[in-house]
Amino acid sequence: MRAMVFAAGQGTRLHPLTDKLPKALVPVAGRPMIEYPLLLLRHYGIKEVIINLHHLGEKIEEYLQGGKKLGLRISYSKEEELLDTGGGLLKARSFLQGGTFIVINSDVIIDVPLQEALDQHRQHAATATLILRPDAQADLYGPIETSADSKIQRFLGHEAPSSGPVGPVRKLMFTGVQVLEPRVFDYMAGEDTSRFSTTKATYPKMLTRGECLYGFPFEGFWQDLGTPERIKETEEKLNRGGIRLHYLKPR
Q1: How many domains, in total, are found in the chain?
Q2: pLDDT on residue 4
Q3: Residue 24, by phi and psi: left (phi above 0), alpha (psi -120 to 50) or beta?
Q4: Residue-wise pLDDT tens digits, 127-168
Q5: CA within 20 to 30 Å of 143's CA: 37, 201, 208, 215, which one?
Q6: Which pLDDT belongs to residue 17?
């Protein structure tokens, strides 16, 4: 199995740290933040990874050395202009289209049991399984609503075709981790621009056309690392031992 890690962002909310350092290499509790998703993937035996690059991408290449220091085989997808999540995935299609693959953001730390998500994905023969989490502000930012069987019924205002009563739904938020089948690329054809978002363009299109989209509900540790305040909060949790990531070996 292969995976893609998004690392092309400019990290504007982390200035001045990111003036000379790519966001993916900003340290969090003694590790560049990109190591967390890479070590999660390695823990589950996923060693073929592609990373998209843009702002100061050469420094990420220099640091990771093709994955040698982490026991991975890393390829790079260089974006002269930022392509967003959909455009970035589409550019990496030739690397990913061989079978089920994982996509994860470099600016989150998540303690997800990835094998369980993969098992559910296969059980439902899903085209996409999004790792979702509860959030008290889901309505404010746009919820993803799932039925009791974890099937996505509504996605940011878009609804799946009706096939009878759905029952109660659960409102959740997207973590930035997803399990995908190459079939998702069929829904990216014909985009007006190479820059587009999977959450705004691709997944709504898939849902309304009856494609199998599922959520994997996750209530464990998740933290966005987009601001200095969130990094500090994460470091405090990790350093005081309140959070132990299952895929990290004790130091």
Answers
A1: 2
A2: 98
A3: alpha
A4: 999 999 999 888 887 899 999 999 999 998 899 997 666 788
A5: 37
A6: 83
Let me know if residue 42 belongs to a domain.
yes
| Range 170-195 average pLDDT | 89
Distance of CA 32 to the CA centre of its chain: 17
| Spatial CA neighbour of 204 closest among 163, 153, 169, 165 | 153
Q: Is residue 215 part of a domain?
A: yes
On whether both 64 and 101 belong to a single domain, the answer is: yes
**Nearest-10 Cα torsion for 181, 183, 185, 187:** -130
What's the CA gap between 104 and 154, in Å, rounded? 22
Name the residue range of residue 210's domain.
112-173+183-220
Question: Computed from CA positions of residues 152, 157, 163, 169, in that sequence, does the dihedral angle turn out positive or negative?
Answer: positive
End-to-end CA, the chain: 28
- Which two tokens mark 182? 């190459």
pLDDT of residue 242 exceeding 80, the answer is: no
Domain membership of residue 234 (yes or no) is no
3-class SS of residue 212 = coil
* Residue 229 belongs to a domain: no
